[in-house]
Design the sequence.
């Protein structure tokens, strides 16, 4: 810690740097900070609910549109008891996971192809970039025409959204591999497959995982969108259907469920990435720096 | 031969006449998870105003950690470090090992960086930056981006940036470690010439004993981790000094004597390395 202690005789000052705490104290302080961070993280939503509760019961906001959290909780319990909520959650989760799987496989494949080959990139990048900007909901009616009123149409719509996210992040990751790392492979006369397996793919993985984290979020977003228009099960359907029946508390149950699903999926990807990529988690003096 | 081994005794807290820096029992430990690394100290050092002090020691002996503590980037975990500073001038500035040159800024903008942070008016900042670019021998490259420069030129940018703020204590962390041997000699000469002009206080960390003896008024040999002062040598060569001092027989003899001390420390750190792995 730096502090100015006293005025030395000359027209100057004495700056003293000394220990702010022993290492043990510093470690205790770090742990305490971690606890405070967790409390804050949970505290913010709790505070929101409290404010909301007070506002709704005092009549500051219209409880028809903003039912107090206690009402929402009651609706949630009913939905859990009847088994409806799990049915909806399961339907939505399946769609998100199937959609993600389709999008990730095709998107990564496209990303690798475009990232590895100049010719493929020249041929397909303009086309894919143009399609990227088309809102996938705008093509959803077309998918319904092709696949009929089936789950496949919904899965494909989610998959298409994920595809573009994974394509862009994978391609960018491959193009960003440092020339120095490529040359290591070249100098050892590694063939294309070995170069890919030992250098390009591992180097690209951290950025691909960041793409995957964004992908699961947009997959949830897309899931809600398509379920609004075409489904008889799922969280999106629950929200939409509750709206038409003017059951605001059930609507909020759906909204909270979607938020939690997105949070869990996104964190799951983060944890997996930390597990799979120990090297991308670099410890530096006094703290962690992370590529992820 | 003026070689003496200093004992790790606590120094008095009052300012000795002409002292710029006084480290007393400075220590640094790093804790990550359950492991604890004692990187430095107890480390005692006194640096006089205007003195050029070189720290040499094996890799990982905590030399850089000491510089970071002086710079205020890192607090010590024990001991005190006192700096006697004048008003109205930048306290310390650091030349980083990996240059720390910002790739998105031109040479001029990089050199001007510290001045901008100190809120020097734009016009004056530009003039001072240009002056330092000239002194360090980079005229004509003001508008170039660092990626287009050689390693030696980039390191000059870093030195000019540190000097442009007129620091009272210039900290240099193995500044020439990444440039080739010939460029090293050239940069040492540039540094000696620039330093002669105002003889500010410099603490220079290096692996190279030769470099330390060419540049410094004093050479402080630091032990293997945790770093302590093993030996504190006053370099007998006069000023102004040119880098061809290294070709004199006196230099060779001094180099040999100090190397005997340093070699033991390097071997100690090697042994520690094999134990750890």
Sequence:
């Amino acid at each position: 810690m730096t502090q100015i202690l006293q005025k030395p005789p000359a027209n100057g000052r004495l700056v003293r740097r000394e220990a702010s705490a022993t290492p043990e104290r510093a470690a205790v302080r770090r742990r305490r900070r971690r606890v405070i961070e967790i409390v804050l993280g949970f505290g913010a939503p709790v505070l929101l609910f409290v404010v909301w509760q007070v506002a709704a019961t005092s009549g500051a906001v219209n409880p028809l549109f903003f039912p107090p959290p206690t009402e929402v909780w009651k609706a949630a319990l009913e939905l859990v008891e009847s088994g409806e909520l799990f049915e909806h959650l399961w339907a939505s989760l399946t769609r998100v996971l199937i959609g993600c799987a389709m999008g990730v496989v095709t998107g990564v494949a496209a990303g690798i192809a475009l990232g590895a080959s100049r010719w493929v990139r020249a041929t397909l990048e303009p086309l894919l970039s143009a399609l990227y900007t088309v809102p996938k909901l705008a093509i959803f009616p077309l998918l319904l025409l092709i696949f009929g009123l089936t789950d496949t149409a919904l899965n494909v719509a989610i998959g298409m959204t994920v595809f573009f996210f994974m394509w862009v992040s994978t391609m960018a990751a491959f193009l960003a591999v440092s020339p120095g790392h490529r040359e290591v492979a070249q100098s050892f006369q590694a063939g294309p497959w070995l170069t890919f397996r030992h250098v390009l793919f591992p180097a690209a993985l951290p950025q691909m995982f960041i793409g995957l984290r964004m992908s699961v979020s947009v997959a949830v977003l897309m899931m809600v969108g398509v379920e609004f228009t075409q489904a008889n099960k799922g969280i999106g359907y629950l929200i939409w259907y509750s709206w038409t029946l003017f059951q605001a508390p059930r609507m909020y149950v759906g909204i909270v469920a979607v938020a939690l699903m997105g949070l869990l999926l996104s964190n799951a990807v983060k944890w997996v990435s930390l597990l799979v990529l120990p090297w991308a988690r670099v410890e530096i003096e006094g703290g962690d720096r992370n590529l992820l | 031969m003026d070689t003496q081994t200093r004992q790790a005794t606590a120094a008095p807290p009052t300012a000795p006449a002409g002292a710029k820096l006084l480290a007393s029992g400075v220590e640094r430990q790093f804790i990550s998870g359950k492991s604890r690394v004692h990187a430095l100290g107890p480390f005692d050092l006194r640096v006089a105003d205007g003195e050029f002090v070189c720290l040499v020691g094996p890799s990982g002996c905590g030399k850089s950690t000491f510089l970071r503590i002086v710079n205020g980037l890192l607090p010590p975990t024990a001991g005190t470090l006192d700096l006697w500073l004048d008003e109205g001038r930048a306290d310390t500035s650091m030349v980083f090992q990996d240059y720390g040159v910002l790739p998105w800024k031109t040479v001029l903008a990089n050199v001007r960086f510290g001045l901008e942070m100190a809120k020097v008016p734009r016009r004056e900042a530009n003039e001072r930056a240009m002056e330092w670019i000239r002194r360090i021998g980079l005229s004509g490259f003001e508008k170039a981006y660092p990626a287009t420069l050689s390693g030696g030129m980039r390191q000059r940018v870093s030195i000019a940036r540190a000097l442009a703020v007129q620091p009272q204590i210039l900290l240099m962390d193995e500044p020439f470690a990444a440039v080739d041997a010939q460029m090293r000699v050239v940069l040492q000469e540039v540094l000696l010439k620039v330093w002669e002009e105002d003889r500010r206080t410099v603490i220079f960390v290096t692996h190279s004993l030769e470099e330390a003896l060419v540049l410094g008024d004093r050479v402080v040999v630091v032990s293997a981790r945790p770093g302590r002062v093993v030996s504190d040598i006053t370099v007998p060569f006069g000023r102004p000094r040119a880098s061809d001092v290294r070709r004199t027989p006196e230099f060779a003899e001094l180099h040999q004597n100090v190397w005997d001390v340093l070699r033991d420390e390097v071997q100690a750190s090697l042994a520690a390395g094999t134990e750890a792995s």
Residues 123 and 190 of chain B are 26 Å apart (CA to CA). Residues 1-14 of chain B have pLDDT under 50 and may be disordered.
